[in-house]
Amino acid sequence: MTEILLRPATPTDYDAIAAIWHMSASLPGVGPAAMPTLDRLRARVDVEIEAGWQVTVALAGAELIGFLAIKPAAGVLDQLFMHPEARGMGLGLVLLDAAKAQMPGGFALFTRTGNMPARRFYEKHGLMHLRDELHPIFGDPIAYYEWKPA
User: E strands within the chain?
Assistant: First the structure.
């Protein structure tokens, strides 16, 4: 894998964050059935950051290729996405390890129940499946996970 640099997001990253979020969440089984538009996700980036999201971006050279967004006060890994072309290159683990370092006491997250690649990834890297429920906004099935340090 190309050398990856992680750093806190800046406002100049927000468009790229929304674009990666939209591209990745639009993949089959990843996002909701009724995928929000890119403009809606871009607006949500601003809202979530204002509400306390802490966002770390991953760069390969000058290109933003992934991000993670956490809600540390709530102990939640809220988003972890990478550019679709960066899948399978180890970036997910780099981002997940960053989330573990930023929330060393543990955290929760959810993913769509049909997102089997993400579920296998989380389980392989120490997250425990807690339960399946319906998404509170979209109503589709989601799987809740938790990570606790050993």
Answer: 4-8, 54-60, 63-71, 76-82, 107-112, 128-134, 141-147
pLDDT digits (tens, 9 = 90+) for 123-145: 999 999 999 999 887 788 999 99
14-53 burial: b if 16+ Cβ within 10 Å, else e? bebbbebbbbbbeeeebbeeeebeeeebbeebeebbeeeb
Classified as helix, coil or strand, 109 is strand
Question: Considering the entire predicted model, what is its pTM?
Answer: 0.92
CA–CA dist 91, 23 (Å, integer): 16
In order of their start, the domains of the chain are: 4-147 (3.40.630.30)
CB 129 within 8 A of CB 96: no
CB atoms within 10 A of CB 107: 22
